[in-house]
Amino acid sequence: MALKLFNTLTRSAQEFTPLHGKKVGMYCCGPTVYDFAHIGNWRTFVFADLVRRTLEFSGYDVTHVMNITDVEDKIIKRVREQKTTLREFTGKFETAFLDDLKALGCRQPHQTPRATEHIPEIIALIEKLVARGVAYQAADGSVYFSIEKYRGCGCHYGQLLKLNLDEMRAGERVASDEYEKESIADFALWKAFVPEDGDVTWDSPWGKGRPGWHIECSAMSIKALGETFDLHLGGEDLKFPHHEDEIAQSEGATGKPFVKFWLHGAHLLVEGKKMSKSLGNYFTLRDLVAKGFTAREVRYLLLSAHYRETFNFTLDGLTGAKSALARIDECVSKLRQSANIVGIVQPDQIKLQEQQNACSNMLHDFTDAITNDLNISAAWAVVFEWVRETNKRFKKNNHMANDAASVSLSAWEKVDSVLGVGKQADIEIPEEILSLAKTRLEAKGNRDFKKADAIRDELKAKGWLVEDMPLGFKFKKL
Ligand code: AMP
Ligand code: ZN
Predict the structure, then answer these.
(1) Residue 67 Cβ contacting ligand 1 at under 6 Å
(2) Which of 8, 43, 44 is the pocket-test mutation for ligand 1 (most atoms within 8 Å of CB)?
(3) Cβ 336 under 6 angstroms from ligand 1
């Protein structure tokens, strides 16, 4: 099944084909480390993880880059307010972010470059733009990107969304990193030092100053993935101005197309409004863990809707996610128990053939769903149908043959390599324990119950409970 993704550049779902064979370069705009990320932010990062996992599931070799924005307007404001240093301030939020990323089951990006460690690359990129005549130093000492000059070279500003450029107020500039569509204007690449910046300043050909937010991502993505790469993603609020400006800076400097596929995730809402720091309507992962939810449950919830659809976050919704996940866990745990039962054949147990069909159907339908622009609702429906069928068999038969359970677990693991909701810890039975249990079974067969009981105690002392089954035994870790 070919992988189809909705490309914001073409406003259509297209077959995903990388630039170089099976290799995929993927860049996701990372966190601005000025506070703990809220679960709206996490919706976007979990979406990025789903994209990566789907690409890997489809056989691609992904290089996943996610930057850390550790210098920008909001950060500098807080560093000043808290009378601390930039590194000390951003360091604690960066660590918290990476911890939460792991807790939420996201695969670690291959590179997590920090903006402050790429100042030479940022300066070199701005120098290129100045040399090509699309950037200029203004009277305030800052360097701006000239939209007019850029368009004059035949370049297209407004690739990700329709902009009414004719209403643009020529000559206007914006110095701040965030601005609205209504104020399309030349934007800052290098911001001249102002006393409020304190120690946060670097030397440059244009004097002391610091980079603008947009140029950071262009410089780091080009360095990590080349001048043209496959896939760039972020939340939908980043389309403008951030991503539009990234395209302008990158294409303005290299003269080459910047990115082949742009993917944007819809927002997580609270009562119809975007979850955001500024509205104060947010929860961090830590807030939810403190309320008794697990990171897996939060991940499940964030993955419950299609990435291009907004959805409302509620605690009731999260409670629903908890019980949905518990249904999967219960089924998987029964499969694990069956796979761990050693040396028994039950006449009425679920046979390999029955489960095999259910598993190959699940894998087929799941692949169809997830490769169709990450149709996650259809993908979950397939999983729950499989859980339902498997539970039905367990109800009828009580036991499942070892091989049938193994096939089922491996099908679930394939599916979970995309969903990433994790599995309950594997019970690995050490060789020594297995051998003791077999000796105990032999002793029982020889009616040497004293020896059998002694071995049972020995196993217990080693932390294993052995339970007798009609034709064998199974283990429980104490
Ligand atoms: P920031 O740390 O503010 O740069 O944001 C990090 C990412 O979170 C960006 O890709 C944003 O688009 C995304 N984001 C912010 N708020 C939300 C939200 N309510 N729902 C989904 N994504 C969001
Ligand atoms: Zn970015």
Answers:
(1) no
(2) 44
(3) no
The predicted-structure confidence for 460-469, as pLDDT tens digits, reads as follows: 888 888 777 6
Distance (Å) from CA 87 to ligand 2 centroid: 20
Q: Residue 425: is its pLDDT beyond 50? A: no
| Per-residue pLDDT, 347 | 61
**What is the Cα–Cα distance from 232 to 246, expressed in whole angstroms?**
11
Cα 121 to ligand 1 centre (Å): 25
Closest Cα to atom 15 of ligand 1: 41
Give, in order, the Cα–Cα distances in Å from 223 to each of 217, 232, 307, 399, 470: 10, 14, 28, 55, 63
Predicted structure pTM score = 0.89
Ligand with smallest separation from the Cα of 48: 1
The rounded distance, in Å, linking the Cα atoms of 343 and 298 is: 39
Return the ligand number nearest the Cα of 38.
1
Q: Which of 41, 97, 311 to mutate to test the pocket of ligand 1 (most atoms within 8 A of CB)?
A: 41
| Mean pLDDT for all residues in the chain | 91
User: Per-residue pLDDT for 358 more than 90?
Assistant: yes
Instruction: Encode burial over 416-441: b for 16+ CB neighbours within 10 A, e otherwise.
Output: bebbbbbeeeeeeeeeebeebbeebb
Residues 163-205 have pLDDT tens digits of 877 766 555 788 888 887 666 789 999 999 999 999 999 999 9
Closest ligand 1 atom to 235 CA:
12
